[in-house]
Design brief:
Layout: H1 2-35, E1 39-48, E2 54-65, E3 69-71, H2 73-83, H3 86-106, E4 113-117, H4 120-124, H5 128-138, E5 146-151, H6 152-157, H7 159-170, E6 175-181, H8 188-193, E7 198-201, H9 203-207, H10 213-228, E8 232-235, H11 241-249, E9 254-255, E10 264-265, H12 266-277
Parallel strand pairs: 2-4, 4-5, 5-6, 6-7, 7-8, 8-9
Antiparallel strand pairs: 1-2, 1-9, 1-10, 2-3
Helix pairs in contact: 1-2, 3-5
The structure holds ligand C2E and calcium ion (3 copies).
The site of ligand C2E has 20 residues, from β2, α2 and β6.
Length: 278
């Protein structure tokens, strides 16, 4: 038993070393990616439920790795969070996304909002507010064009602090969206007190609307609850005509998902938008 114990300890230690080693390599690569400018933003359109027109975009980061190709944010954002590299990456996202609002204005799309995903470290950083103000000013973009997405679980981590931070951000005239709604156990009491504008119903509920009556119930309840609180509702992950019809019949304000378009790089999105509009 003793012998076995030591072997498994040795094994464990080796495995730990491998994990630590792996993390260090990834962090180094991420650092390199920042220096080499290997990140890019893709944009997914958001469509108005009533008028069938594009009203907004969500910016979604990708890592264009020179050998490994396009890497998903689900893979590298957690590593970036853990290592603190999320801060420079987030600053880049903010700058790039606001620049894109300005670009789209030039192309004649002058009334489109831009949503960006806010990491927890960025959200809690003291300079976040001023950074947004500065970047909006650089590109001469009014705050109302920018939407900040924070997840429900992020918001609930320290709800009192979240409320305070959000009140500060609201002074910039930006909108706040509660992302992944339905997955984070927010209490109704807090939902009412959070100075948010938009609720994004999580994809997991939309996905099974057609086949799971519970999910259909949850989605429609989330929509009416949000409307009763005076909030706008975005459904994410809309993939089928049936899902769209369901959401429309329940007065969902905005739809986003592969049914309309996958996230696209700026030039491809522009072409898509031109053909959608005409
Ligand atoms: P999220 O904010 O919930 O973004 C929605 C994810 O669902 C995106 O994945 C999007 O590509 C995907 N999606 C959109 N429509 C559909 C659909 O109809 N069907 C399916 N199956 N998926 C759909 P993506 O781009 O891989 O991003 C994953 C997550 O990474 C995001 O989840 C967000 O939490 C995070 N993320 C992305 N960009 C950023 C960023 O710039 N900063 C930070 N901090 N996080 C980011
Ligand atoms: Ca999001
Ligand atoms: Ca989401
Ligand atoms: Ca998500």
């Amino acid at each position: 038993v003793k012998e076995h114990g030591r072997n498994s300890y040795q094994f464990f230690k080796q495995e730990m070393n491998d994990v630590i080693q792996m993390k260090l390599i990834l962090e180094q690569e991420l650092l390199n990616a920042i220096e080499q400018n290997e990140f890019c933003l893709y944009y997914q359109p958001q469509i108005c439920g009533k008028e069938h027109k594009i009203i907004g975009l969500e910016a979604l980061i990708r890592w264009q790795h020179p050998e490994k190709g396009l890497i998903s944010p689900d893979f590298f954002i957690p590593i970036a969070e853990e290592s603190g590299l999320i801060i420079p990456i987030s600053q880049w996202v903010l700058h790039e996304a606001i620049k894109t609002i300005a670009n789209f204005k030039e192309f004649g799309f002058s009334n489109i909002t831009m949503a960006i995903n806010i990491s927890q470290q960025q959200f809690k950083s003291e300079s976040f507010h001023d950074e947004i103000a500065r970047t909006l000013k650089t590109f001469n973009i009014p705050g109302r064009f920018l939407e900040l997405e924070i997840t429900e679980s992020q918001a609930m981590e320290n709800a009192e602090q979240t409320i305070e931070i959000l009140h500060g951000l609201k002074k910039l005239n930006v909108s706040i969206a509660l992302d992944d709604f339905g997955t984070g156990y927010s209490s109704l009491a807090y939902l009412k007190r959070l100075p948010i504008d938009i609720v994004k119903v999580d994809r997991s509920f939309i996905q099974d609307i057609e086949h799971d009556s519970n999910d259909a119930e949850i989605s429609s309840a989330a929509i009416s609850l949000s409307h009763n609180l005076g909030l706008k509702v975005i459904a994410e992950g809309v993939e089928t005509e049936t899902q769209l019809a369901f959401l429309k019949s329940h007065n969902c304000d905005v739809m986003q998902g592969y049914f309309f378009s996958r996230p696209l790089p700026e030039n491809e999105l522009l072409a898509w938008m031109k053909s959608f509009a005409s």
